[in-house]
């Protein structure tokens, strides 16, 4: 989705070249669409005096507009920080900010709430842009310092405060890291206040962004606002193979999309009996081997006959379990499995057009025989009966033609 100032030239996108400060805020990730923008407030109602401000890589904070500034989406503002001030961009105003704060459990009536100072001046924007340009070369040097000190950590991103008075280093580590010596090196080299902030692997992928195995941008960096825990039981319920290479995302953890259809699978599994429940028949005890959630089928095998599976429906399995609870046994599973008839007839559509889908299914002939026949036909055409020289070979050496079953049309001419 591009902003209004983006355009194309010769078929390729030119872009607005605003470097993250787009006026309409349509090129930014995690953007909330303000569907109340064209609606006016009722008479006597005051606009909500909280504003959502976005910083680097989708980090968002909510500020109290105590000065009653007239703000709109895309305005650059100077906000309150713990020390100094920060520069951010307004991404949402009005009643939708109240909804977002309620969703994220942020209280409205707080005395120590952060405030918006003013709209950013050109000087503030120049200092902010100069600080942003330093972040990438600083990250390369910071990683080298961590490697020299042999610390088991990865510095994933650096974010400068708007007034360039503080730099926040985001890092990931599997274990606890003692970085006191590293902070001294950073303060001596970069000449600014340093703050180290550890983030998880999912948060790192959300900040950096990327392309997933589905070919689309990562959900955590586009529209996901929170991270829910993902366990291997979600893959088991969906009958997926527990292959860590296929189930892991760009962050190295289980994919967030495993939870998307989990509720639907759990609702479908309510009609299925538990897989560890055995079916008792007069022929023997049957154990569940496989389930098909989409078709509602289950496969059972008798103990001792593990190679022979019998397919029954979930209704039939629940019926047998109810009879077993009444201490009754059915004769066998075969009488239930015979009722489930598979439709093995498959109908193919001609998606190619005039070509047949079975045009390559015929048996292939022997290439050697075809080549020999072609050579023999070419030799006969070149040497006719008039051009042939009389041969001195004996008549017995010439082999007669095989399968010469032609009969003469007239018997009298044949006798002459």
Automatic annotation (TrEMBL):
Domain of life: Bacteria
Record field: compositional bias (Basic residues): 365-383, 399-416
Domain PSP1 C-terminal: 114-199
Pfam family, one: PSP1
Gene Ontology CC annotations of this record: cytoplasm
Coiled-coil intervals, chain numbering: none
Region (Disordered): 354-416
Alphabetized NCBIfam families for the sequence: RicT_YaaT_fam
PANTHER family, sorted: PROTEIN PSP1 (PTHR43830:SF3)
Protein name as catalogued: Cell fate regulator YaaT, PSP1 superfamily (Controls sporulation, competence, biofilm development)
Organism the protein comes from: Algibacter luteus
């Amino acid at each position: 989705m591009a902003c209004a100032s983006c355009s194309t030239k010769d078929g390729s996108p030119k872009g607005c070249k605003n470097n993250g400060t787009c006026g309409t805020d349509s090129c930014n990730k995690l953007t909330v669409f303000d569907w109340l923008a064209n609606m006016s407030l009722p008479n006597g109602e005051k606009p909500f005096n909280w504003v959502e401000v976005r910083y680097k890589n989708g980090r968002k904070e909510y500020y109290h507009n105590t000065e009653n500034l007239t703000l709109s989406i895309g305005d650059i503002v100077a906000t309150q920080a713990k020390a100094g001030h920060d520069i951010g961009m307004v991404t949402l105003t009005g009643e939708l900010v109240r909804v977002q704060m309620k969703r994220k459990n942020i209280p409205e009536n707080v005395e120590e709430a952060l405030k918006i100072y003013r709209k950013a001046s050109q000087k503030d924007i120049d200092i902010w842009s100069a600080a942003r340009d330093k972040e990438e070369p600083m990250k390369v040097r910071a990683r080298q310092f961590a490697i020299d000190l042999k610390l088991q950590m990865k510095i994933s991103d650096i974010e400068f405060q708007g007034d360039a008075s503080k730099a926040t280093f985001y890092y990931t580590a599997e274990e606890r890291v003692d970085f006191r010596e590293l902070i001294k090196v950073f303060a001596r080299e970069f000449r600014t206040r340093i703050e180290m902030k550890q983030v998880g692997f999912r948060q790192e992928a959300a900040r950096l962004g990327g392309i997933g195995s589905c070919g689309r941008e990562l959900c955590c960096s586009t529209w996901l606002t929170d991270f829910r825990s993902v366990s291997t039981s979600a893959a088991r319920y969906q009958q997926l193979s527990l292959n860590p290479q296929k189930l892991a995302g760009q962050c190295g953890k289980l994919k967030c999309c495993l939870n998307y259809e989990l509720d639907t699978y759990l609702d479908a599994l309510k009609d299925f009996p538990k897989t560890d429940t055995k079916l008792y028949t007069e022929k023997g005890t049957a154990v569940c081997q496989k389930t098909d959630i989409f078709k509602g089928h289950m496969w059972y095998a008798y103990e001792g006959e593990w190679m022979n599976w019998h397919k029954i429906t979930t209704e039939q399995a629940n019926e047998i379990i109810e009879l077993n609870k009444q201490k009754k046994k059915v004769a066998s599973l075969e009488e239930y499995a015979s009722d489930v008839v598979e439709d093995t007839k498959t109908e193919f559509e001609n998606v190619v057009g005039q070509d047949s889908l079975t045009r390559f299914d015929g048996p292939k002939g022997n290439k050697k025989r075809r080549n020999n026949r072609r050579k023999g036909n070419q030799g006969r055409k070149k040497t006719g009966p008039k051009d042939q020289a009389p041969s001195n070979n004996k008549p017995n050496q010439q082999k007669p033609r095989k399968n010469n079953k032609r009969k003469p049309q007239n018997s009298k001419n044949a006798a002459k």
